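Example record for the data management plan.
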Amino acid sequence: MDYIKSEYQTILDRKAENKDGSYTCYLFEKGIDKILKKVGEECSEVIIAAKNNDNEETVYEITDLIYHILVLMANQGITPEDVEAALAKKAEKEGNLKKFHVVDKNT
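Corresponding structural encoding:
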């Protein structure tokens, strides 16, 4: 998680600097719609790489997805600590397998 926190801080620093030519600053300038579009694109690329059974490409795409999720988090004021706390809460749950709704087609 140290890498995540370090990368998140770098993103916050770039946001504060508003440096020309920075891709991170570009995302913040374009706003939430652009950030969400990139998160969606990266999700799709992870899926395709995994479906192609290409682990090297999958890892590469996962890192892109994590970066864009961190930008989204910074944009929304969500910290890595917020995510850690939510993960810790989930870990405390037992038997959290979702139950699927069964439709009785005979009624």
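Summary line stored alongside the record: Helices lie at 2-17, 23-30, 32-51, 55-76, 80-92.
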